[in-house]
Amino acid sequence: MEEGYQSCFFQGHTSCAGCGMAIIIRHVLNAAGPNTVVINTTSCSEIATTNWPFTSWPVPYIHAAFETGGSVASGVEAALKKLKKEKVNVIVIAGDGGTYDIGLQALSGMVDRGHNVLYICYDNECYSNTGIQRSSATPYGAWTTTSPPGKFSIGNPTTKKPICEMMAVQGAVYVATSSVGYVNDIEAKVKKALTIKGPKFMLIHQPCTQSWRYDPSKTVELGKLAVETGMWIMYEIENGNMEITMEPKGKKVDEYLKAQGRFKHITAKEIEEIQKHVDSEWKRYKKMMKK
Q1: Which of 7, 35, 49, 71 is packed most tightly, with the most Cβ within 10 A?
Q2: Domain tally for the chain?
Q3: What is the CATH number of the domain that holds 154?
Q4: In this model, does residue 85 exceed pLDDT 80?
């Protein structure tokens, strides 16, 4: 670290041991620097970092309701423009529940109006903060408290909503995915996003020790494994043009699935179905990149 360096995210928060969210936020703010306003929707990140009278945020910080991250950020960006302080970074930090589901309307409006905001969703693929319910980010077959496996159900019956493609099609000027397993990639993409004027969206994959049911020491390892097996694709979309930034290493999905308790119920046949879906999605992304 440079002499005099001060982190923009303090230790002492109350997140779980092995929580990927805290790692992600630290590296997002390392990249953004202190000239930043953070809008943080209700989520694990808000609960764990704002225990009165303490805070982990040395930068200007606004807690927004689950559904209002995009709209609050829009107002902050408009106010800074009016004050001629347009060089201040405006960043939303939200979970998948406050992005894919409850916050989608406000996010869509933010992108539609063209606000110069970087919206970051850390995706732990369920509502971890409120009882491990499924969200539209929950992958096929996963256990949650509202998608339990049983005689007539595999677990979650749907695949993940293509939120990044939705944002790109709507007009976000920069869209990117990253992973807690690759913090240098997180920082590089945040820095790049903040040089681009207009609405930006980043989706960062975050294993959750509580809801995914794995050893807390394995968070980064599991994040990398998601990328290596193709369960999580790393890419950027700029003005409609896709570039894959890290290719899978050809590992089979069963290695990733068997490392988590939320998939312990699935059969070999179902693992084969998931592998086919992952292979199909990889081919689809490769075709999108060629266009």
Answers
A1: 49
A2: 1
A3: 3.40.50.970
A4: yes
